[in-house]
Description:
By secondary structure, the protein is an alpha/beta fold. It has helices at 3-7, 16-21, 27-39, 90-103, 118-128; strands at residues 43-46, 65-68, 79-81, 109-112, 133-135. β4, α5 (118-128) and β5 (133-135) form a beta-alpha-beta unit. The model has no long low-confidence stretch (mean pLDDT 81).
Amino acid sequence: MNHQALLYSLDPKLPLSKIQEDTEYDPIKYAKLQDRMAEHKIGAILASDTDFPNKLLPIRPKIHGLYYTGDISLLNRKTLGIVGPRLMSSYGDQVVASLFEAADSYAIVTISGMADGIDTRCHTLSLQQQIPTIAVLG
């Protein structure tokens, strides 16, 4: 695994350009990051890994890697992304609710940003109807 990509989030003051220039491997920093990830059950996958989800490869700007918890294989299934306003209107709630009335008959995974409003409603309805769901956090 590329230690430079993983170390990027270890020090928020360290610019990405400095990490990209750094060719020196620091096993202490890397071990600290691995311990933190294991403690919180966080996985990491790089775009160069063979099991990286193919559907994410065309995204621009290029995704170099993902941190995740849970079942990353859900990204290989059919997905339905739901994005909407944080201040959900009653109409928006009705549209999402009607969408989910039939959603469980399709073998899909829902994806939302987990923000307030439509995103949270999508996630909640997915869980209620036992539809696998993915939250993509900013």
